[in-house]
Amino acid sequence: MSRIDIQSAVAGTVWQITAEPGARVGAGDLIMILESMKLEIEVPAPGAGRLSLAVTEGQVVSVGDVVATLEPV
């Protein structure tokens, strides 16, 4: 497995980060919640790996921005 970049599907704000940087996550585990137009959009891990965050809570993101990466373990 190679590195997986996790991109934002919406333009909005990083409302809450729910997983710790460096944590091992599994496919489907909740990583963060984005807020866009008063909606909360959950961002799950697309696969398993060690999480590295590219954003902080309160940061504004655009569609396609990399918000996190998963490294194989």
Question: How would you describe this structure to a colleague?
Answer:
This protein is mostly beta strands and 73 residues long. The protein has one domain: OB fold (Dihydrolipoamide Acetyltransferase, E2P), CATH 2.40.50. Helices cover 0% and strands 52% of the residues. It has strands at residues 4-7, 12-17, 24-25, 30-36, 39-44, 49-53, 60-61, 66-71. The protein has a four-stranded antiparallel beta sheet with strand order 1-8-6-3, with no helix packed on it. It has a four-stranded antiparallel beta sheet with strand order 5-4-2-7, with no helix packed on it. A hairpin with a 2-residue loop joins β4 and β5. The protein is globular, with a radius of gyration of 11 Å. The model has no long low-confidence stretch (mean pLDDT 96).
Structure keywords:
globular; four-stranded antiparallel β-sheet; OB fold (Dihydrolipoamide Acetyltransferase, E2P); mainly beta; 8 strands; 73 residues
